[in-house]
Amino acid sequence: MTETSIPAIDAARLLAGDPAETARTRDAAGGIGFLTVHNTPLDRARVEELIAAYRGFFALPEEEKAKVDMSRTEASRGWGAPRSEQVDPEANPDYKEVFDCGHEWPESGLKVYAPNLWPDRPEGFRAVLEAYYRDACAFSLDLLSALAGAIGEDRAYFRDKFDRPMALLRGNYYPERPDWAGARDFGIGAHTDYGCLTLLATDGVAGLEVNSPSGWLPVSAEPGTFIINFGEMLEFWSDGRIRATEHRVIGSREERISVPLFFNPRHDANVAPVGSGRTIRAADHLQKRYDETYLHLKAG
Ligand SMILES: O=C(O)CCC(=O)C(=O)O
Ligand SMILES: [Fe+2]
Question: Which GO terms describe its biological process (predicted)?
């Protein structure tokens, strides 16, 4: 596949089953593995409100963020300090900061459903994130159903695999690229995402690069337009018909906020290739990847 541009898809048309938009989505998912979507149910004001909430949190004094530091827990909930995650083992730990929250189900005993850690400030932070989480999950499920149809599978296939989703909503804060940063330092090192579909909102500042046949390709999106890519579980599931493409952020003189929703299925979903007779339990794959990349979870 030699596709070297990132298709822009009209989400309303795709979800309504428009054949041309469906075919372009299928080609993008199986080719470069990235697309942008506009005309979505989450408008610009909604995303700007969300980004402002994260901006307020990341601007808090370090002592305050440390009260919800995920390194005190065995899970990926709360604040991740700079250099607390190493997505590329060949690179140094990322210099970004993050705030993670997700679906809670403590009775499950699974760390992927751990309780969220909420800061006292900024005011309204929790409510804004929870409402966005809910609506972004619904939109992502619609997108996945359309994608299933696009690759010739049952559109309803995913519906019951995403109740109690292990979906994780993350705020990434990339400060100005530090003076000390060298060739092995990244805002986020090269990686593929772990789950099914990533719905990425950004503040519009450039920085994301996609590994394409012609080299690292920049992609950006204004608030209200989203970048979509696919994770390892969907690549397994679709037996490679949908690609999990590597991407990274080196960082620049301009600070940047991005908000991915990592739309992961329920813990017991089987993400092995459809019809293969094999089993790959979604929670096992996700926990393995968390344990490999979050420094506070790394074995030893
Ligand atoms: O900040 C971005 O644009 C991408 C972030 C990313 O790849 C991630 O959080 O997995
Ligand atoms: Fe990513």
Answer: ethylene biosynthetic process
Q: Which atom of ligand 1 is nearest to the CA of 207?
A: 3
Nearest CA to ligand 1 atom 4: 208
Inside any domain, residue 200 = yes
- 127 token code pair: 């409510």
Residue nearest to atom 1 of ligand 1 (CA): 258
Q: How far apart are CA 254 and CA 174, in angstroms?
A: 9
pTM: 0.97
Q: Which domain holds residue 114?
A: 8-293
In a domain, residue 207? The reply is yes
Q: Give the closest residue to 249 by CA, choosing from 170, 179, 195, 177.
A: 177
What atom in ligand 1 is closest to the CA of residue 227? 3
pLDDT of residue 1: 44
CATH at 189: 2.60.120.330
Q: Is 84 within a domain?
A: yes
How remote is the CA of residue 227 from the centroid of ligand 1, in Å? 10
Q: Separation of 260 CA from ligand 1 center, angstroms?
A: 6
299 falls within a domain: no
When pLDDT is averaged across residues 94-109 and rounded to a whole number, the result is 98
Mutate to test the pocket of ligand 1, among 258, 259, 289 (most ligand atoms within 8 A of CB): 258
